[in-house]
Amino acid sequence: MKKIIFIILLQFFYTLSIAGETKKIITNLTLERAIEIALKENSQVKIAKFEIEKSESKLIESYSSLIPNLSGEGSYIRNIKKPVFFLPDFFGGTGQVRPIEIGSRNSYSAQLKIGVPIFVGQVYTGIVMSKLGLELTKISYEETLAQIRLNVTKAFLDVLLTRETEKFVKESYENAIRNLENARKLNSAGLISDFDYLSAQVEVEKIKPNVLQAEYTYQTALNFLKALLNLSAEDSIEVNGNIQSLFVNRTMPSINEYVVENTFSLKILSLQKQIADKNIMLQRWGHFPSFVAFGNYQVQTQAEDFNFNNYKWVKSAAVGLSLSVPIFSGFGIKSKVEQAEIQSKQLEETINFTRKQLDIAITNTRNRILTGLEKIDAQKLNKEKARRSYEIAEIRFREGMSTQLEVSNANLNLLSAELGYAQAIYDYLVAQAELEFYLNQSTK
């Protein structure tokens, strides 16, 4: 029994030691550092890289169809019953046919074949499509990098905002506790009513759930950022800075008439349209002949025994041309061409629709930035006034010149103003990051 307990404890401490070794701790994490880690460790980035490698391999495969192919074959046949052919009974006069055995019990053959495509239209179109496919995966990879950068920026800002929210809510809670202590003293001195003292107690209890919710929201935002950095929930990160420190660039990025065309979405759709157009030609090649040169070299022998030294090997060789002309395929090629043409038309409509949607989205994002700048100025002024108002209300309450309700309202207004200012900066920074994504600037 003691031995079993010892083994269990040993396994327990071993598990703890392993967990301690694998836990990652990242301190002083800035936005730039977070983006750098995500672009290196995020699984979506790794998957996109594999897609590029796969497209490169597919392009090599397409080129291989133009290279002469060489193959070798070998066979051994043991004739349990020898094959026969039939001849008329010329000498017996019976009018019957007689089976004549041919060959030997053992048959060996070896063959070397070579094929050289001279004209196969599908191959050339397939190479062009593979090149376009490789270019498409590279642009998709760039889009993935830009999207990860945008997602990390948003997640990082979420962490800063929720941390600021937690800070402000706790400050409001501390204000309420300090106010409750003042109310207790004033009530003991008979300067305020029991109702005001009770109201101060209610105010503290009312804010306490908000503190718990703010802590939970902050931890949730922190875990989401960890996921983007390919970290586990047990890993520890310490985010540096505050949301106000990132509000340094108040300029509007320049937007020209080619902005929409330069977005990742339209670039990808444009390449998909080119591939679809090439697919039409690929299917049409099914109506055209293909021309292939071939050659083979063969050695063979037959024998009744396994005395390999006495075998006589016969050699033969041939070269030729093969022309394959499609005549009728049950309208299959025609249907494939029609499907490819429909797909091309669908992509054309998708491009037109997406172009309009992107134009609206970019315009709305630009307007959000302009509005955000105005909101920041207004919220900053509101925050300063709310803080001054709370300080006056607190002094008035201590001197018995105001009620608990006035202090409570001032505290609530201060919390709302501080959160509003932080939220305004957050909205501006998110809109700015989204506009950079649309402008294809986030990976430059």
The string of secondary-structure elements, in order, is HEHHEEEEHHEHEEHH
CA gyration radius, whole angstroms? 40 Å
Would you count the extended β strands for me? 8
The fold-level CATH name of the largest domain is: Outer membrane efflux proteins (OEP)
Any idea what the shape is?
A: elongated
Distance between the termini: 65 Å
Major beta-sheet overview: 4 strands, antiparallel
Structural class determined from secondary elements: alpha+beta
Query: Which ranges are low-confidence, i.e. pLDDT below 50, for 5 or more consecutive residues?
Result: 1-10, 16-20
**Fraction in helix:** 55-70%
CATH architectural label of the largest domain: Up-down Bundle
Set down the secondary structure blueprint.
Elements: H1 2-22, E1 25-29, H2 31-41, H3 43-64, E2 69-78, E3 84-88, E4 97-101, E5 106-119, H4 121-188, H5 194-228, E6 236-239, H6 264-284, E7 290-303, E8 314-324, H7 332-398, H8 404-438
Parallel strand pairs: 1-6
Antiparallel strand pairs: 2-5, 3-4, 5-7, 7-8
Helix pairs in contact: 2-4, 3-4, 4-5, 4-6, 4-8, 6-7, 7-8
Verbal overview:
By secondary structure, this protein is an alpha+beta fold. The chain has two domains: 23-65 and 120-288 and 330-438, Up-down Bundle (Outer membrane efflux proteins (OEP)), CATH 1.20.1600.10; 76-114 and 292-325. 63% of the residues lie in helices and 15% in strands. It has eight helices and eight strands; from the N terminus they run H-E-H-H-E-E-E-E-H-H-E-H-E-E-H-H. The protein has helices spanning 2-22, 31-41, 43-64, 121-188, 194-228, 264-284, 332-398, 404-438, and strands spanning 25-29, 69-78, 84-88, 97-101, 106-119, 236-239, 290-303, 314-324. The strands form three sheets. The chain has a four-stranded antiparallel beta sheet, with no helix packed on it. The protein has a two-stranded parallel sheet with strand order 1-6. Strand 3 (84-88) and strand 4 form a beta hairpin. Helix 4 (121-188) runs antiparallel to helix 5 (194-228). It is elongated. The chain starts with a helix and ends in a 6-residue tail after the last helix.
